[in-house]
Design a protein that fits this description.
Layout (H helix, E strand, L loop, with lengths): L3 E5 L3 H11 L5 E5 L2 H11 L3 E4 L8 H8 L1
Parallel strand pairs: 1-2, 1-3
Length: 69
Amino acid sequence: MSKRILVVEDQPDNRQIIRDMLAPTGYEIMEAENGEQALTAIAKQRPDLILMDIQLPNFQTRVFRVRIL
């Protein structure tokens, strides 16, 4: 089973850049556009690493952090 990386980023262009950078690593890349999608992905697929845009608009950072921890 490959390692999973969840990319949480609201800008499609930024997600594409990150996806292109990570593609040769062999990791499974998952994506979320917002915090709600990120929480769903975390619950279903248990990523090994989360790369997150810290300034997502309307992102409930406290809820996200509490649920992850």
